[in-house]
Amino acid sequence: AQSVTQPDIHITVSEGASLELRCNYSYGATPYLFWYVQSPGQGLQLLLKYFSGDTLVQGIKGFEAEFKRSQSSFNLRKPSVHWSDAAEYFCAVAPMNYGGSQGNLIFGKGTKLSVKP
Amino acid sequence: NAGVTQTPKFRILKIGQSMTLQCAQDMNHNYMYWYRQDPGMGLKLIYYSVGAGITDKGEVPNGYNVSRSTTEDFPLRLELAAPSQTSVYFCASSYGDRHGYTFGSGTRLTVV
Fold first, then answer.
1. Does the domain spanning B4-99 belong to CATH 2.60.40.10?
2. What's the total number of domains in chain A?
């Protein structure tokens, strides 16, 4: 069955430190891959997405993610974390034709990021 | 440009009551979705629609119903509310394919 795993439930980093959030997927073919961020009491906002091509993708708010086919991973990174990055982060995957009859995103359970001053 | 609008933001229901969660989008997206979010469980798909007049079940449809009479609106109906339906509900829409979703701000529902 298709699945998305975010191994870390909660991560705490110091402000200014680098960040890497892990995401692994179980899928027959390379799916479309997404990272979303959710601030407390808010909906989810798209950070970045990957479909094909360059395996390093840039997103909003200084985030980037790298797709590694051999590891079935799509880890999210940021070189220097700001206090405003404290939020919950969700990795999601979709079949390549998810816009059609199969269509929906499968979400991981999320990683909560806390930022120490 | 309002995006995806959900109403109400908060609601408390008694067991056995019914209600409709409203969702409207003004981006002319064909695809619309209802998810529920429970702590530590991520998002689970309830129902989705690929266009007006077309709906289909997601992973957790029991206890819910939807309709899609227009491109803009995708209401979610809860019949005979149960405590297990206490959750945060998110509506989302998309052009489909490679565009990702636009989410509403959610409805926090408590069933007591």
1. yes
2. 1
Of B4, B98, B101, the CB nearest to A105: B101
- When CB atoms are compared, the residue of B33, B103, B105 closest to A104 is B33
Q: The domain spanning residue A71 has which CATH number? A: 2.60.40.10
Closest residue of chain A to B46, computed from CA coordinates:
A104
**Beta pairing partners, B92:** B33, B103
Q: What is the pLDDT of residue A101?
A: 35
If one counts every other C-beta atom within 10 angstroms of the C-beta of residue A2, the result is 12
Rg (CA), chain B: 13
Backbone dihedral angles phi then psi of residue B107, each to the nearest 5 degrees: -125, 120
H-run or E-run covering A77: strand A73-78
Residues on chain A touching B43 (C-beta within 8 angstroms): 44, 90, 107
CA distances from B12 to B8, B23, B34, B88, B108 (A): 11, 18, 19, 12, 9
Report the alpha-carbon distance of residue A23 to residue A7 in Å, rounded. 7
pLDDT tens profile A13-25: 999 999 999 999 9
Q: Considering only CB atoms, which chain B residues are within 8 Å of A45?
A: 103
Domain that holds residue A36: 3-116
pLDDT of residue A104: 76
